[in-house]
What does this fold into?
Amino acid sequence: MTPAPSAVLSAVVPLFVSLVGPLTASPIASPIASPFGPPVDIGRDQARQEAEGKLLRSGYEQESPVDWLWRKFDEFLGDLLDAGTNSAGGVMSLIVIVVILVVLAALLLWALRRMSRRGRTGEGAVFDQAELTAAEHRAAAGRHAADGNWRAAVQERLRAIARDLEERAIVSPLPGRTAMELAETAGTALPSHAAALRQAARVFDDIAYGDVPGTRQAYLTLTALDDSLRKARISLDAAT
It folds into this structure.
């Protein structure tokens, strides 16, 4: 005969309770043991120090050579200061620091001046956008000289020299030609004037593209060269 459902439940429930009871009778009292050993308990200060150390090490790994040199120099100065405060040689350490700083400042100033001068000096084209004859350039140079504008007077006088050499077919017209290129080309055709042409080119570059101010003497030097080159044309014509 089949047993009644109530009888089955009466037999199963006590068995289920007996199996589950030990698992739920009391809460878990301790954490699961780590396979790597017992957990390490560190304080807040120690954790902060370790985090800062990791950040510092990662910063060192990423720093550039310049940053590394600056850090080493800073550490060196710090060591000197510590030595100065902790020993009788403090005055000597202070003197060493001052000398080092003065030398570094002098080197930095020299480098900045050199870079600035390089940025302002160089070579450039003799002519600007205007197309003038040699006579027109000479007239413009004379007007600037009369006004005391020696920079513009020097520029126009050398342009007069260059245009005159082109008009006389001693050099071929070349857009963008520099003063030194003009001197080299014309000096080959007129060897007796080669040195003076190179000197005139340097004067032009220094005044037109550098930081050298124009002077009356520079203008007179280029004027004398212009006159001498114009006489050289007569000599060349007579020789042919």
